[in-house]
Amino acid sequence: MIKQSPLVGGDTLVREALSRLEQPARRLFMRRTLTLGGLSLLTGCSITDDASAEQALMKVSRLNDKVQAWLFDPNRLAPTYPESMITRPFPFNAFYGEDKVPDVDADAFRLEVSGLVADKHAWTLPELRAMPQTEQITRHICVEGWSAIGKWGGVPFSVFLRRVGADLNAKYVGFKCADDYYTSIDMQTALHPQTLLALSYDGQTLPRRYGFPMKLRMPTKLGYKNPKHIQAIFVTNNYPGGYWEDQGYNWFGGS
Amino acid sequence: METIMEPLMTDDARAIHPLWLRLTHWLNALAVGILATSGWRIYDATPLFDFSFADSLTLGGWLGGALQWHFAAMWLLVANGLAYLLLNAGSGRLWKQFFPLSPRTFLADLHAALRGHLSHADPRRYNSVQRLAYLFVMADSVLLVLSGLVLWKSVQFPLLRELLGGYEPARRVHFFAMAALVGFVGVHLAMVAAVPRTLRAMTLGR
Q1: CATH architecture of B2-204
Q2: How many domains does chain A have?
Q3: How far apart are CA B31 and CA A216, in angstroms?
Q4: Min CA distance, A16 vs chain B (Å)?
Q5: What ipTM goes with this model?
Q6: Contact between B156 and A72 using a beta-carbon 8 Å cutoff
Q7: What is the pLDDT of residues A173-214, one digit of tens each?
Q8: By the 8 A CB rule, do B145 and B78 touch?
Q9: Cβ–Cβ of A142/B59 closer than 8 Å?
Q10: Residue A91 forms part of a structural domain
Q11: CB-closest option in B30, B64, B154 to A247
Q12: Which of A9, B8, B56, B198 stands 20 to 30 A from A189 (CA)?
């Protein structure tokens, strides 16, 4: 794994370089598919062309985004669970090891808000904690298949978006994180009643390993769509992509 | 519709399997091949049991690639499977070929098959073991699709999710339904190897 510098995400050059470094590993995946005997069945398709197969699969993935947006019911709630069912210890998971978790200075921290919003002032942690809070115990489902039940507390994201005067008809909400992670979600999910700007975990201030100072918690989306260590939020109509999504994970990633 | 389907349905009177059946069979084989091998790669990301599938048997190269193959081939499986079921039921073939099916004839045919005495004199007619095996694989495929739907969209299909016992049990249902399908394919291929002209019948029609 490449050591990531804890940039706020503005450094596109570094990001570009990093994404290029990702390429060779990713290219391998298509090459390996060709060694599979079963795929000889596919003769006749242009499957022997790595790039066109990858493009076709990406197109289907974009189509699957649309199908999922259509299937998504903004009022349908993910199941909630009793305290006794919380997974202990809740697993740590990131694209780096636990020793690389960023250390964010709480006092100096400011949450940047930009894009299609009326109020672009940067938020301190006490300001966020002064907003109405709610708690929920839900299942976190990882793209790897495993799942774990946890208890997150924080500001309903729809309340936050309305407070900053976000354009609620915009298509996307994007996130930039202290660990250089980035992702984006659809506005429908951003406004879902269970989508939380989580500031606490299991009744405690959100620990470093779970994303201090805040993560976006969505029980309607897979784990990689739930960014941790958020430093900047922006509302936009331009597709912002994401760290894993740009490498091939499905963008909608909903459940 | 009638006129479009006519060449598909009537075919050559001497054909053992109509063209639509041969087409849907091979498209299904392709979909199942992609779904199983990419599914094994997805399984390997968090193995449910104390084993993993060898990388060389899997499709996709990494989790993200395997997921792309899986979520593309699922459309082929579902569209082709629906076409198969509709044509099968609509043409009356489903009823004619798979029924009647009684436990007694099944046991008699199974006994004969195990002793190598089961006749394949008329490949147009399925024996009771074939009838049950093919009906089972249809039902198993439906279960694979439904459990897959729960894994993909567990929040959006609450009734289906609860019927399968929740998200985690649905993973196991999906796994064992896959294992049953792969087991079927193994026996199926062994039977084709034993009676090679069935391969010709499923490809050329006679």
Answers
A1: Up-down Bundle (1.20)
A2: 1
A3: 36
A4: 20
A5: 0.89
A6: yes
A7: 999 999 999 999 999 999 999 999 999 999 999 999 999 999
A8: yes
A9: no
A10: yes
A11: B64
A12: A9
